[in-house]
Known about the structure:
Blueprint: H1 12-25, H2 27-32, E1 38-43, E2 49-54, E3 65-75, H3 83-90, E4 103-105, E5 110-113, E6 122-128, E7 131-142, H4 144-150, H5 159-177, E8 183-186, E9 190-194, E10 201-202, E11 208-209, E12 212-216
Antiparallel strand pairs: 1-2, 3-5, 3-7, 4-5, 6-7, 8-9, 9-12, 10-11
Amino acid sequence: MSGPQFAKKVENTDALSTIAKFKKKHAAKIKEDDHQILLRPSYGSVGIPTNVGVNFFNYHVKELRLFSYHVDLQSKVATKLKLKSAVAKILEAEPFKSKRSQIFYRDKNTLYSTLPLPIEDVVLYPVADGVAVKVQYIKELNFKDLLDYVQLRTYTRDFNEIQEYTNALLAVIGSKALQDQNVVGLGSNKFFIFDKKSEQHDFQKGLFITMGTFASIR
């Protein structure tokens, strides 16, 4: 069976051309803030070393506070239910439903909320016969601590603790990115953004081939 035929093969030079046009169009803005776009070494789709664009965005966290909770699947019976699906179920009911816009979760074992949930220690939320989601309060993250840390001239051994803050930010930003129906999450910090103008070609077993942009948040 022959695969779909695209009118044009994408080359690494296409990406460089796009970056060049961006830099020319926004030259004045980039001159004011060189973090608007940077280039870093990477590999193209055929393994040829090239440069890819890296965008930096300001995300104000000075007043941000997040409450972190560990989530786990507790099962007394055999189940095919995955943690991500189980958490999605409990988020559709109280006490989570009314606070859904303040809750951030990215298919891992940690859930974050900008408001404290009514969970002082550990609570089990049933999702099926013999299956429940265990939610345990961990701690409050005050992002002023993160700002204080990054301004230190001498780094300390607190890095592991600071990692909690960066992981939380990835969950928050990733959750917001996935509110766009044209974005698909891949793991905890990778995303595929569909190009609305690109044609879709049926592949097999419900799959299709299309083009878009692969991005990651760091």
